[in-house]
Amino acid sequence: MAQGRMDTAPTFSARILNAVSEVTEAEWDGLPNVEGHPFLTWRFLNALEQSGCASAETGWAPRHIWLLDANEHPVGGTPLYAKTHSQGEYVFDHAWADALHRAGGDYYPKLQSSIPFTPATGPRLLANTNDARNGLVQAMVQACHEWSYSGAHLTFLNPDDRETLETAGLSIREDRQFHFINRGYGNFDDFLQSLTSRKRKNIRKERAQAQDGITIKRLTGDDLKPEHWDTFYHCYLDTSQRKWGRPYLNREFFARIHETMRDDILLVMAFDGEMPIAAALNFIGREALYGRNWGALVHKPFLHFELCYYQAIEAGIELGLPRVEAGAQGEHKLARGYEPVATFSAHYLAHPGLRDAIDDYLTRERMAVEHEIKILAQHTPFKKDTAP
């Protein structure tokens, strides 16, 4: 789809950006709701695009919506990509693609409003007024029909966007993650005191074994050096190749965020003497610490839990952040103080038959997810008098 313009309502028009660099950093970051969300910033999105990680060649072709009022002033935007596969999204729709293919239709390309390779909840409709938010939704739906996309999918939604999209008639899907909720803890020991004795002892045992014989450093801002990124990238490659077969992110991407975002980054590294052996990458937001990628060059029991979960909890408490999001999946997080929370996505399917079938499926799936969250919540490690 080439760059174009669409009239979405009498007072709005939409421009399609084939790169976030088609607008300035100040213009994009000046959109409502970008501030405080590191993954929505021009710097992060531009790093993905300029490094080639989010590109037509990788199946993530940028098609961001830039909403303009009648005076050509920007009033909204949406990070949006034309996808030729369903990889790197963390909300799985492969069965939908297969169903449409068997019915003789093409599921790809589709439109995806998300942060590539980043299952973190946040705003997607970057506008202040209901009219502008609805204008962004109309632009996505219109793009599906004008350029023959099978649908538009918006993932890891905040409550405001979910409400807007549900009201607009999109199908709502529910899933779950595990987040650490900071209930005003002064330090990690305060958090431990809220747990049952058995769980508290287990965490202390795991931390002692993980920390035995090593040094752990938290690096941010100017303390981060290129050599730290070299080590982290080796760790990242090891994990990504074992999990997915190929990495989504390249070394250039990490070099770019080092130059532009190092104050928003917390890199936790483990050292055996002077030798780095493992690393975990976090991003610092206004409302959360976001754990993203990790890897280790040696095997050490519980080191993954220490760097990715316990160090993140400590850092989140010290930073005074309301929560820690440690990424997708992982029931093992439950025993380590992370609680089940619902996540939401919204889906527009252009094919009426597929849309009706998915609506029916999602109704049943939501009931199952909600039941699962209730069951999981009964098995948190908290004392009964401090349980959420």
Folded structure, characterized:
With 388 residues, the chain is of the alpha+beta class. The protein has two domains: 5-176 and 341-377, Gcn5-related N-acetyltransferase (GNAT) (Aminopeptidase, 3-Layer(aba) Sandwich), CATH 3.40.630; 183-321, Aminopeptidase. Helices cover 37% and strands 25% of the residues. Strand 1 (5-9) and strand 2 (12-17) form a beta hairpin. The N and C termini lie far apart (48 Å).
Brief overview:
The protein has 388 residues and is an alpha+beta fold. 37% of the residues lie in helices and 25% in strands. Strands 3-6-7-9-16-10-15-14-13-12-11 form an eleven-stranded mixed beta sheet. It has a five-stranded antiparallel beta sheet with strand order 1-2-4-5-8.
